[in-house]
Amino acid sequence: MSKRLNPANWASLRPFGIGLRKPNNYLELWKAFRSVKGNRRYAWRILNQGTCDGCALGTQGMRDWTMDEIHLCNIRLRLLPLNTMPALDVSLLSDVSGLAGKRSAELRDLGRLPYPMLRRAGEPGFRRISWDEALGLAAGELRESRFGAYLTSRGMPNENYYAAQKAVRALGTNNIDNAARICHSPSTVALKETIGAAATTCSYTDWIGSDLIVFIGSNPSNNQPVAMKYLYHAKKAGTRVAMVNAYREPGMDKYWVPSNAESALFGTKITDEFFGVNVGGDIGFLNGVLKHMIENDWVDKEFADQRTTGFEEMRAALAGQTWAELEALSGASRDDMFRLAELLGAAKSAVFVWSMGVTQHTYGEDNVRSIVNLALAGGFLGRDRCGLMPIRGHSGVQGGAEMGAYATGLPGGLPITPENATKFADMWGFEVPATPGLTATDMIDAAHSGDLDALVSSGGNFLEVLPDPAYCREALSRLRLRVHIDIVLSSQMLVPGAGDVLLLPAQTRYEMVGGVTETSTERRIIFSPEVEGPRAGEAWPEWKIFTELAARARPELSAKVRFTGTPQIRAEIERAVPFYEGIAGLAKFGDNVQYGGRHLFADGRFQTPDGLARFSVVEPPALERPDGSFMVATRRGKQFNSMVHERLDGFNGATREAVLMSPYDADRLGLPDGAAVELRSGERTYHGKVLRAPLMPGNLQVHWPEGNVLLDEARRSAQARIPDYNALVTVRPL
């Protein structure tokens, strides 16, 4: 990595960007210091000894495997209080009416859940009970009921995922799902189908020195801040950065890396080429880029001929798609598509990075297929500085599906078939269901229709992460039993129900005896040791909660589902998931193994039955926009997942109620900044205030989860069953 100054990449000559709108990362350090008052030594040990429980970039303490510099971001700092705060006063839960209406941040700030708590139907609140009573009550209900289990991905280690899915299957169902369902499930479907592996094909180091990095529907400046440091080094190495998005994200335009002297002082220009597309217009744009590559002979023919199949079918389908059709869908011009095609044609190496802007559509799988087509056309797989990267926003997402905590997959990502079910039945010593279970969204539907009796939710908050919060609330209220496993309070715990509600206190990853592991975006399985410090009441590790529930519900299987500790779980993972070879040997700080090595498919073969990657025929979706309507997308601000940290986004000055709108549309409608407006989608409405932003005309953005009230809970993709986090709306001044 070059240490020489490069003024060509500087964002501003103002020292530290004084007077410019940007986040104050040094203020974040001060806020973090204040937030852990009383537990600062413990917080320091977590930062130095633990694997980050924020995004999935992955660390060993405050170091990583990409650069020889500090790896620390404000998201991790903001999560410190959750891991270090004292227990809440459980008397506050005796009558939860006093907590009604409190924001999620206020509920979290009350402190850690210290004891099992029970609320009977019709009672005003919760009372403390013993673990024995709590487990006995839950096991008795689960033994005979139709139930589902959901696990969030914030801080969730592989050991919890694996033990939980095994326990749920011992109880006779595949109704277990995790947060990957509403993040990257379309990536899983499309990548398995096209290249045979549902994982990033390269490493973060491949960003640095690649000719080109293309970000599509992804905003690391908000969601994976340390990645901006990687981009700083990539720019120093001569890498060009292209961005395909409806909104020109300010943080992806210019960024001040606080821990690097040059970038902290002068900032860094990140995006070299911006390509504006409509919300939902990615396929139109990417198909147009591919069409140009083919017409201009910019395809790696040797790679396509020797390592892929389906090229001619794809080319014939593209030939039938007119430029007018692709331009109308994408909102971009034929010339814009040519510019990116030319960049890809000239590049000897390229990395494609995408996130929720690509996946959270009813046609999310086809969005991903269109990206894969571009990578295959350029031969950008299996070698240095090339690859496909569905970047992960949570530290536990990648491992969740690979451990089998998935309604449509078994450990190792194997599909649920009679043959695979028999394989695990033989391994575990009990029958494993042979048909797919209910996904996270299907569970809510089943609860709403009366076809689900109980739900075990480990972390997460359906009221904030899924479309139509009122629909989710009604569904939760109809269950005979809800078991909420978490480290802090959430609003979904307070929903009164037709049956019992149990709160079970969980340990953080830093509290678990024997340590745990996470799998990062680059397929690196990283050990995170137990960190010495205070403990919250009677909290248990989630792997133990799930296995104990199964052991009590089915005593005859108790010896088959219980574990002595996390080392035993890792040993079983290595047997159940062969490509996780080496996880059993991870036992101390810094231990890690990257399955598949730096690159997948470096040997020239893909993980498909014939060893060939597959081009896909991707037809443009039929999107109709009546005159005067807008496509609105949900965005993230100063937050982590649905945990909002600040009302104001330092990158663009947007408050939580902001409706981001292009200046063209705002002028056309006569709406100044701050104007109150109503967005309407059918009977669904949202009130906000206009904020002009560099957005494609005809498109709007509102914050998530606040904007979820506009979303139709029935709109999901056909294969992955991911909700559509976009809506067609009209705008009315208030």
Structure description:
This protein is α/β, with parallel strands linked by helices and 734 residues long. The protein is 33% helix and 16% strand. The strands form 8 sheets. The chain has a 7-stranded mixed beta sheet, sandwiched between helices. It has a 6-stranded mixed β-barrel with strand order 22-28-25-27-26-29. Strands 9-6-5-11-12 form a 5-stranded parallel beta sheet. Strand 23 (639-640) and strand 24 (643-644) form a beta hairpin. Helix 1 (25-35) packs parallel to helix 3, helix 2 (40-49) crosses helix 3 (74-84) and helix 21 crosses helix 23 (469-477). The longest helix is centred in the middle third of the chain and has 15 residues, at 364-378. The protein is globular. The mean pLDDT is 94.
Structural class: alpha/beta
Q: Estimate the helix proportion, in percent.
A: 25-40%
What is the number of helical segments per DSSP (H or I, 4+ residues)?
A: 27
Number of strands: 29
Provide the spatial order of strands within the biggest beta sheet. 2-1-17-16-15-3-4
Using only C-alpha atoms, the radius of gyration works out to 25 Å
Distance between the termini: 54 Å
What sort of overall outline do the alpha carbons produce when their principal axes are compared?
globular
| Low-confidence spans | none
Strand residues, percent: 15-25%
Organism: Nonomuraea rosea
InterPro entries: Asp_de-COase-like_dom_sf (IPR009010), Mopterin_OxRdtase (IPR006656), Mopterin_OxRdtse_a_bac (IPR010046), Prok_molybdopt-oxidoreductase (IPR050123)
Domain Molybdopterin oxidoreductase: 112-551
Pfam families: Molybdopterin
